[in-house]
Amino acid sequence: MKIKIAFIQLVGCKELEKQYQNGQAACRKAKQMGADIALFPEMWSSGYYLPQDEYELRALSIAKQSSFVQGFKALAKELDMAIAITFLERNDPKPLNSVVLFDRNGSEVLHYSKVHTCAFDLEKVLSAGEEFRTAKLETANGSITVGAMICYDREFPESARILMLKGAELILAPNACPMEINRLCALRTRAYENMTAVATCNYAQGQPDCNGHSTLFDGVAWLREEEGVRDMCILEAPEAEGIYLTELDVDKLRSYRECEVMGDKFRRPGMYGELVKKQ
């Protein structure tokens, strides 16, 4: 089984209607390219614009039942393609940084809000999500278990580890920050240590504080029938705007997970109590 993932690496803006039209057009192009899943960068509805004024922020936030989000639901069904759309979600007391994954039938299969918000910066005006979730995604070629984490979630190994323990084979990771060597290494490590594919979609160069370099790490560090190690990086996009398509070999990943030793094979949870103690 193989699935094709389209990374919608564009420059955004804070105008909801323009983001909607550009996003819809990008999804149509992704389908023409043969995508099974289209993945957006972080908080696409506002182009990751986060006003610090409470009233402006509330006016910019949208509900999951809004015409913006539901428009991508309808488009997923029309195109027979899964779409992971990101948005500033209306919520009390403060908005959420969220992603919803619609399957090829237009059914919602996953709704996740960023757990590790950047509360030291602009995201101090947001509420944090409360749970990491996974779901079965049916594609034309078969089903795969997917999870999601958003940008800063990447810096906490627990995010990907929990998703792996919940069965994730593929982690979708919307992003809005400079993708430099250390962040790229963190994504590579999350894939390596969990034997899990990690797909990260960033805004293109031209978006404030962003530089493209969307990536797919497939989680397969070596193959027993081949000598040496292999590069898990299946895609690293350039800085420029574009829709970048790559293919994930799910069968290869599953075979690798059956015989290799990372993930949950030799964990000792009883030794990890310090991880959940309040400091």
Task: Lay out the secondary structure.
Elements: E1 2-9, H1 16-32, E2 37-39, H2 54-60, H3 67-79, E3 82-89, E4 96-102, E5 108-113, E6 134-139, E7 142-148, H4 157-165, E8 170-174, H5 181-194, E9 197-201, E10 215-217, E11 233-236, E12 242-249, H6 250-259
Parallel strand pairs: 1-2, 2-3, 7-8, 8-9
Antiparallel strand pairs: 1-12, 3-4, 4-5, 6-7, 9-10, 10-11
Helix pairs in contact: 1-3, 4-5
Characterization of the model:
This protein has helices at 16-32, 54-60, 67-79, 157-165, 181-194, 250-259; strands spanning 2-9, 37-39, 82-89, 96-102, 108-113, 134-139, 142-148, 170-174, 197-201, 215-217, 233-236, 242-249. With 279 residues, the chain is α/β, with parallel strands linked by helices. It has one domain: Carbon-nitrogen hydrolase (Nitrilase/N-carbamoyl-D-aminoacid amidohydrolase, 4-Layer Sandwich). The strands form 2 sheets. The chain has a 6-stranded mixed beta sheet. A 6-stranded mixed beta sheet has the order 6-7-8-9-10-11, covered by helices on one side. Strand 4 (96-102) and strand 5 form a beta hairpin. Helix 1 (16-32) runs parallel beside helix 3 (67-79) and helix 4 runs parallel beside helix 5 (181-194). The N and C termini lie far apart (45 Å).
